[in-house]
Input
Amino acid sequence: MTAYIIPLVIMAYSRETKFFYAYFVLRTLAAMVGEGTISCLALAYVADNVPGTERVSAFGILSGVFSAAFVFGTLAARFISTALTFQVAAVVSMVAVVYMRIFLKDSIPVADESTRPILKGSETDNDQNDSDSMKKIHIFKKIPSIGDLICLLRSSKIFAQAAVVAFFNNLAEGGLQASLLYYLKARFHFNKTQFADLMLIVGVAGTLSQLLFMPLLAPVLGEERLLSIGLFVGFSNMFLYSISWAAWVPYATTVFTLFVVFVSPCIRSIASKQVGPLEQGKAQGCLSGITSFANIVSPLIFSPLTALFLSEAAPFPYPGFSLMCIGLAQMIAFVQSLMMRAVPPSTIREVFSEDA
Output
């Protein structure tokens, strides 16, 4: 978080060309340090302090706070000058670091059976099984980062399925971010004001859904059903986008954001329950690595595809073909989500017996 302050201070001081290049270099280095780390550690901190049965709601609320911050940041950028924007951003970043150092104490993970079903049997197991389970909890300490991911994928079928869902969902989200604005500008002549309005509507809808609706629905439906609902609505939304015939359609379909935002917190919650209390940060980091890879690959696929079908050289007349392909990626994630089932306790004990 401290690394993020320095680039903002540079642009707050001056926006001349040489300062912009310095900002760009330092911003890149800061992103390498903390772009995914901050969110992973925040999720791990929540997992340390919230029981497994309540974790999906807590993750949803945390995502809602992220969305609320995005909304307020976008609003602030629209009403204050460009120079003042960087000054305010630098001050807010400093306040965040000071707040964290004063109030956010390092947490000690609380042992909770519901948070680590894949790593430990029930309390009625004998001492030998408990010892074997604790060895599994600490296994990541002997393995490098790539080994963490391989070990997780091999030891937990549910985590592997969550990883597949996360990859295809973020492949779709990355493609949407890379293609949608280009598509709306070329198809309906959207300008920057309309883009900002659309992002604000999506941000507000996502914030309300995660802060209000998700805590109510999660205990009733469960995270697996919420995940499937979010993915189903997501690819349905992409299909509607791909056949849009009027400029008001993108605004109308933002109502689907109320359900689409369920996906990420549900994936994170499902994955967090497959590891021990000491491995929450590594599990979330492995998922972030998978999603980051998807976000790198998706623009390479969908940006050229969008440009091709919006040009006169398109193989067939379907301007929204790339959006339909994005929807297909989410459909793959949806099908995979339907196959995710909780592991019965008896199965877990059998796995430990075989390993022993």
